[in-house]
Design goal:
Chain lengths: 518, 98, 520
Amino acid sequence: MSDPTTHAASGAGAADADLTRLTAVEMADRLAAGALTSVELTQAHLDRIERIDPTLNAFLLVDAEGALATAREVDAARAAGEQLPRLAGVPVAVKDIACTQGLTTTAGSRMLEDFVPPYDATVVARIRQARMPILGKTNMDEFAMGSSTEHSAFGPTRNPWDLDRIPGGSGGGSSAAVAAYLAPLAIGSDTGGSIRQPAAVTGTVGTKPTYGAVSRYGIIALASSLDQIGPCARTVADAALLHEVIAGHDPMDSTSVDAPVPDVVGAAGTTDLSGLRVGVVREISGSDQGFQPGVQARFDEALDALRDLGAEITEVSCPHFAYAMAAYYLILPSEASSNLARYDAMRYGRRVTPDGSPSAEQVMGASRDAGFGDEVKRRIILGTYALSSGYYDAYYGQAQKVRTLIARDFEAAFEQVDVLVSPTAPTTAFRIGDKTEDPMAMYLNDIATIPANLAGVPGMSVPSGTADEDGLPAGLQILAPAMQDQRLYAVGAALEARLRERQGGYVIEQAPEIEVRA
Amino acid sequence: MSNLSREDVAHVAMLARIQLEDAELDRLAAQLDQIVDWVGQVGEVASADVPPMSHPMPLANVTRPDEVRDSLTVEQALANAPQAQDDRFAVPRILDEE
Amino acid sequence: MSTRTSAGPDRTVPYDDLLTRYEPVLGLEVHVELGTATKMFCGCATGFGAEPNTQTCPVCLGLPGALPVVNRTAVESAIRIGLALNCGIAEWCRFARKNYFYPDMPKNFQTSQYDEPIAVDGWLDVEVPPREGVDEEPFTYRVEIERAHMEEDTGKSTHVGGSTGRIHGASHSLVDYNRAGIPLIEIVTKPLTGAGERAPEVARAYVGALRDLLRALDVSDVKMEQGSLRCDANVSLMPTGAERFGTRTETKNVNSLRSVERAVRYEMTRHAAVLDAGESILQETRHWHEDTGITTSGRPKSDADDYRYFPEPDLVPVAPTREDVERLRATLPENPAERRRRLQEEWGYSDLEMRDVVNAGAVEVIEATVAVGASPAAARKWWMGELARRAKTAGEDGSAVGLLDLGVTPAHVAELDDLVTSGRLNDSMARQTLDGVLAGEGSPTEVADARGLELVQDDGALQAAVDEVLAENPDVVEKIRGGKVQAVGALIGQVMKKMRGQADAGRARQLILDTLGVQG
Ligand SMILES: [Zn+2]
């Protein structure tokens, strides 16, 4: 930690800020050119985390020592002339849902506050292979259940654009860290929008790849048939680089797709969308569907930009999307109720022992009551109910049929168009505390993102600008057919470039400097 | 009409091994009743001839060869145990069954 | 949560008595631990008796984030078992989660198969032997198989602080997860009806036949005492002539063939007593106690048994192609019962001889001995006679060992037999040779050479001894000449003594008779 070279290199605050404001592509280029060391770059981020994060609470754990150790190894390897992966030396933050060997992994839950995994998630192993220093673990809604990061057992993360607002969820920590220049890149997980919705409300980019494109091994499961891991970044090209690192077949995940990774990095260089057919999904856009006027206005302007780029815009209908939320709030809790059964404080986890001489059963009951927050309990009970004898057909079984109908809606839509678009979230970031007492209102944040998880198709959120009424960022969601993730990057990159021209810079550059709170 | 009574919630919580306190039970029961009512709309749309979809990817026969891989050491296995004894996980007394 | 009936023996009625009024219906669920190198869903080793928690990993400990991957060999074993039980093999089936909380189950759900098992609708013909002391023919009962499905085993709990190491009264438990995740195949019969008074024997014969079949398939070591084959017996009684089955109980912990028969018989007598009293059977789990020969009440079925099955989302379907199934069918061994019938015919053994051979577990070793040249009769004579006798006390401190653990190979036995039939050794010399083989002195020929064991082939020496003995025993010679040919036995003994045993007794007899000019 107090390595003198590191200390000397870290320099003054202004210099840190400069380094942290580079894109990941620029960082990688400068590192490769020898114009920058990974230790300098990593230390700059650690310094900024130390200064800013007490205010934001984006990180649950910072591993300065581990990150700098990797940075030093990369610098030494580069000095020795070794061929290194593209992102070697570029630091990354990891959502606390991914197991990291030897580093506490909590999933935002009191239940796992002391859990230290004896193994790495495959995604983490790939990051290590790519020789990227891991800065730490980011905050999240407990077990990824939520859309605001307010359900973290370790306190909410604040939105860098407005500290009284939520950064989205469940991956609010990762998106806030990226938006606040605490990390150039971060890993997220998306079960119903947990990468895309935080990206939208923090003015960053987030991708949910095709289901099965990125290994789930070592990712603390929420809903196995919906969960997918993906990159968070400030630019589309940066996201593509991280996507390429983490994607690919993994024999440890039976649901991992054994197919070549699409060329997302190449696609992120796209500047022209001539002939591309873009469908606007009627059911998940428009002020009449409850989308905030400023969010809708930026979306409409983005459609103009796409037209400028040569795309044909048409409206398509996905009639069963209206039932997506209901199906999702049956499938997710059902799978989650089973996935979270293992947290019983017998083998690991926080054990609460009631007075007297309690049985294992009583200790489990008390530990689960104390270890889980309200939202987790709500969903476990809902899912247990939906699977229970006599209700399965009406709830879980019926939800699986709706899922079929939604997948068919996508199939029909993708016969007409190459990609679908919508606003990512209905509103900009709301105020912390506004929806915590009303679970149903909270659920509606994910109305536009959930269908992609149900059908397994890939989706991305790119910033569309800031809403006039509150000056907060909004996102545009791009959806593509399964295994066509590169289309997201092509459309996202071209749109990002055009909006940058129109708006005079990246949306994230409009974010105010964070006022550190005591 | 109530879909989910307080007793139902208590029963389901028992199945899920969550020992809810009374106040929690009251609060959750009210919220869950509303949520169950809302998710019930899945019954409005899909007919009997729609096949259920349990998985987004149509994969089959994903298996591994029967080859031994390294296990954890006993120290690693027990490292997170709330309580251990004689290289085993120590758990409170188990009711009823053998 | 549950009610435990107070201790004390249950009422029963005499077995023969109940059969006049009730018809038993049985259902047997057998769990087989497969002998795969690794577990069902992870690469941990499966060896029995390893140090606690040394064969675990994130998957089988149910750590956060871990995911299962199906063991290909386990699926193939399941299909082979299904085929051997004449089942249909599903073209497409899935795993499901069976959700319930229990400390020895790491994920608090068991990954199993529910409504889509890999094998369905088969049968197994079992031969029920005659009852002891009853002069009757064995009969064959066809056990209908409902399904065979794949699942995983649980960990093992040791209960601490209770007086007997049992769960009741224990202060806490210690869990070893080495066994958690070992592949299991559960084989479930359809209701066994119509067996009447022979029902307990049918149950035993079925489990025995299944064990033989699984052993022949080489998919499991099927050791009931180590728990790699476990049987749960469902028993119910219905009044004779009734059509609706009665309420059943499920008896667990039945871990020997003898126990299967005894436990079924006991439950029948207990049910009858309850029903005779006009009470009803409580649907519950019962525990079998080998030592006392009774069952005790376990846990009643309750609302808590809501397993909330749903398709396992972390696994994809198993869809064996018809080519795969046919390839596996080609690997099936001969059905053990048919094989036994075939061998009995080939070897020319009587029913009794064959049954003894089967019961002694000597079928394979005799087959191997015949295969290397011994006659079936000689192979049986050696293995069931001299060698079986020695095996009874060949262990440390005089305990019994298996025939194969004696240190004598089928090739040794065939060679030994050849030495006898060729006339080099007599029986007593053969036994001495065997001593040498057992002592590790080498093959029978090597031992016989080293110990100088060889019948004297030279008639000259033998004739001289015969002449001497005849001269020394004029009275016996007189008797033989007088027609008492059986008196020659006494002379043969003396001749053999003079020859120090190194002679063929048959030849000695011949020479004596020839010398005396008497017809044998
Ligand atoms: Zn394992």
